[in-house]
Design a protein that fits this description.
CATH architecture: Orthogonal Bundle
CATH class: Mainly Alpha
Helix content: over 70%
Radius of gyration: 24 Å
CATH topology: MetI-like fold
Number of domains: 1
Largest sheet: none
Number of helices: 10
Order of helices and strands: HHHHHHHHHH
Shape: flat
Distance between the termini: 30 Å
CATH superfamily: MetI-like
Structural class: mainly alpha
Strand content: under 5%
Length: 317
């Protein structure tokens, strides 16, 4: 309703509204089209699959179109395992970076540091992969050997199916992945923390609260939903990472055994490594079926995260 009491929307408002509605509908159509394309291309291969697509985790055999053998069990386990490992490493570091930049760092220092952290997201994946395999992995070797020696009783640090001293393991891949998603989580969290009402911060300081008490009682409750949102964005980035993990894990294509020193393939690396087989519709369909699962997985993660964010936002009011 405009100030003159006319309830009819103006022409410009109607145009903007229609454009906004069309944009939202276009996104839905594009997502549905991608999902439909993946499903249509995957059906022929799934019909010829001799194994249970969701429970089979053995070697993929797609050379004979009449008796194909493939499944996603190992791919799903490796993808979720390495992504959660990276998220566990990145979340506390990103939170600390966001708190420091918004509450402790001097203004003349906070902005350059923020730009530096953001620049980590601009580094190409291939650089991360090469750096992780040839620079980081040798430095992590003593840590991996120590963890295996003293904590080998835990399945996470057991010898696994790959060499502990080797660099092409999920231990190295997860750390590299954590570095890659850290700037995403830190940037979103930092922006939300900066929106904390200044009056609330000043009131807490006036009542004698220390800087940490201000962070704990004011900043963190206000920015919790943003922190969760940033973590979800980072998880989505980790689930779909391809080139860096392909470089690190390609030499250790061993069965997955829930150890950080195992090798394996994620959905993305498996599809990328088999791109040369896409000249056959059935071979390509097997990998497209795996891509469809990854496509659905991102939707499930995003839906669960949106629910968690909404619940967290209601709880912080």
């Amino acid at each position: 309703m405009n100030p003159w009491g006319n309830t009819k929307p103006r022409f410009g408002d109607r145009i903007v509204r229609r454009l906004a509605e069309a944009s939202g509908a276009l996104i839905v159509v594009l997502v549905a089209a991608i999902g439909g394309f993946l499903l249509i291309r995957a059906i022929p291969a799934l019909q010829r699959n001799q194994e249970n697509f969701f429970s089979y985790g053995g070697k993929w055999i797609t050379t004979d179109p009449s008796a194909m053998h493939f499944g996603i069990l190992d791919l799903l386990q490796v993808t979720v395992f390495v992504s959660l490992f990276a998220l566990i490493l990145a979340m506390p570091v990103a939170l600390g970076v966001a708190i420091f930049l918004t509450q402790y760092a001097p203004r003349r220092l906070a902005r350059p540091l923020a730009y530096t952290v953001d620049l980590l997201a601009a580094v190409p994946s291939i650089i991360y992969g090469v750096w992780g395999l040839h620079v980081l992995a040798p430095q992590l070797r003593p840590v991996a050997v120590w963890l295996n020696h003293w904590m080998g009783w835990c399945f996470l640090f057991s010898t696994g199916n790959a060499s502990v001293a080797g660099g092409g393991t999920m231990f190295t891949g997860g750390i590299v992945l954590a570095v890659m998603i850290l700037p995403i989580i830190a940037a979103v969290t930092r922006e939300v923390f900066m929106l904390t009402p200044h009056d609330q911060i000043e009131a807490a300081l006036a009542l004698g609260a220390t800087r940490w008490e201000v962070v704990r009682t004011t900043v963190l409750p206000f920015g919790r939903s943003g922190y969760v949102s940033g973590a979800v964005l980072g998880l989505g980035r980790a689930l779909g990472e391809t080139l860096a993990l392909l470089i690190i894990l390609r030499g250790t294509q061993t069965p997955f055994g829930w150890s950080l020193f195992d090798g394996g393939s994620t959905f993305a690396t498996k599809i990328a490594a088999a791109a040369y087989e896409f000249n056959n519709q059935y071979k390509a369909g097997a990998y497209i079926a795996a891509g469809l699962v990854l496509f659905v997985l991102t939707f499930v993660v995003d839906s669960l995260a949106r629910g968690a964010v909404a619940k967290t936002a209601r709880g912080s009011r």
